[in-house]
Amino acid sequence: MAASFVTLFQWRLNSMLLHENEILLGVKDQIKSLISQLDEAGSFTGDVGMILGRESGHGSWASELRGILRQAEDFVDDFVIRAYGQTEKDRKDSIAEFGKELQNFNSRISEILNRRPPVEAPLMLEEIQRFVRSNIPSSEDKETDLVTCMLNYINLPYDLKLSLLFCCAFLRRHYQSIDGLVRGLVAAGLVQEKPGELMEDKAQENIDKLISLGMIEELEFIRDHFRVPSPYCELSLGVMKAEDFFMSTANSDIMVPPTARHVSIYYADNTIPNTNSFLHSLFFFSEMDFSKACSDCLRNVLHNSKLLRVLDLKNTLFESLPDEVGKLVHLRYLGVRESYITKLPESISNLRNLQTLYISGPGVGFELSNGVLNLAQLRHLKMSAPAIDGEVTVPQGISRLGNLQTLESIYAGSGIAKELGVMTQLRSLKVSCVSNDHADELYFSVMKLSMLRKLSLTVERGRERGSYKYENSFFPRLESFSPPPLLQTLKLVGRLIEMPLWLGSMENLTKLYMCYSHLSENPTTILQFLPNLKYLRMDKAYKGRRMDKEFFRVGGFPKLEYLYICSRNLVEWTEIEEGALPCLKQLSIYDCRELMLLPEGLQHLTTLQILDMWGVHEDLIRRLSPSGGPENYKIKHIPLVKYRGHMIPSVPGRWAPQ
Fold first, then answer.
1. Which one of 37, 229, 521, 627 is separated from 165 by 20 to 30 angstroms, measured CA to CA?
2. Beta strand 562-566 with 586-590: parallel, antiparallel or unpaired?
3. What is the spatial distance between Cα 214 and Cα 495, in angstroms, rounded to a whole number?
4. CA 595 from chain center: how many Å?
């Protein structure tokens, strides 16, 4: 992986020139000279030979190059930490020393490059087979697939190789959102930064390429989440084992090797291992609640791992974070998911490079202090509280964060709604507890956000005792709203008096979530003409008892691929016109307890791959059964049918072709 190390170090140096200009004025020439030297080194693709374990002079020089690049990068990161804690005089001395050491690294790299072999020998099939057998446990019939995948991996550009390995380390057996992967890749420094370009767009482009190649795939049952399919998962783990650069393990007692830079520990017990001091990424997914002792373990990890750029802790249920987190000068991603944290330490304001802050848990609310306003590089602020009416109170002045692209689960009262109107760089906005006192100002501000791609609005929940969630909570004056033109995803949670007419004009909309709308009218009358809608979730959106062919007509929903219907009121769904829903791939029917028949015409949906029925009447399941069910003809063409009755003792099941 020597060539990939070259690429990563080049990206790191270029990023420093963009962001650390203040302290690098005296050493710019040395940095640019080193970048030029690395350009020459990068022309030799030595990582394949290293992975395959070739016994040659090439292996020796490539190993040396990788070692010196590790030293150089660690030296650069340590210099940044020291420089920002020094007086002006001490900093001048450090910069002078830094420049001399850069020249030293440049000379050593040049000497190593002079010893490289002129031409790398062609890859031999036997070498790849030997690598597969040594590093990836598999049966003989699976070996051929693994060898083919290895060849595909070898032919990938460096950035896609790094993205694939990071996917596997980031995920392993935990599902992850694609948006989360994008943020992780950017924060870990695995995406090249270029002036005038958003790194998130480049990371998304890399992910899309890997999806098109079949190396990662979106989950069929959780939208916008992904996994690394077999055998690419096994292959990635084998490459990680050979390199010790990425590491993924279920053993929290394991010793982390000094070469590891990105470590993922999943299904961990009640401890965090001692990590090496050069670690860049730590993903920790606990299987159980953490004790105070483990909280102390985290304090030790933070003290020892000063170069961390990504720290993602899941299911730890921490009540607070130690102050030591504020000393992680290089930290770009901080995630504490499924925790009891309700506020952050004041030291969080020291994280001058932080790009993503993601806090979630069962708490009812979360209040951000003014310290967050010091996080000038913050791009994604994701805060979620799953409890009813969970909200995040952000400080006034939040609009000062000019790099912010994502702002989620915030309460827009107390003047925040007005501030949103100047945050025109926002791409994703999620607002909770929308109420009469700030709704008009909120709508007016959102209409100004010309870059917005995702919008979620949740109405303030009614307080009546015994009331069903959002049953008496209406969106105030939503008809006065007009969505930004580039909006692709819209989620509305709360009652609607009627369907907003502006919904029918959203030509760029691809995903629509309508939850607890409780409409008496047919919502698809307007929605069926949306030209790019691919995902439609109607969760208690329609309170009628009958759906007929008017809901899904020929010519409507030309690109719809996923349809979700949830309604305890629905009793009859009579018909789907033949030729309707020409692209539908998945139909999910949830909690429709009174529905006894699926519509006539379902058998004509030849593109349908998955039928999900969850919480439906047992009589419906019996009618559809392949074992003599009279309605089975409607679904027998569907490759996968999953079901579960609404009665508590019911057991989940599935029908698939034999």
1. 37
2. parallel
3. 41
4. 36
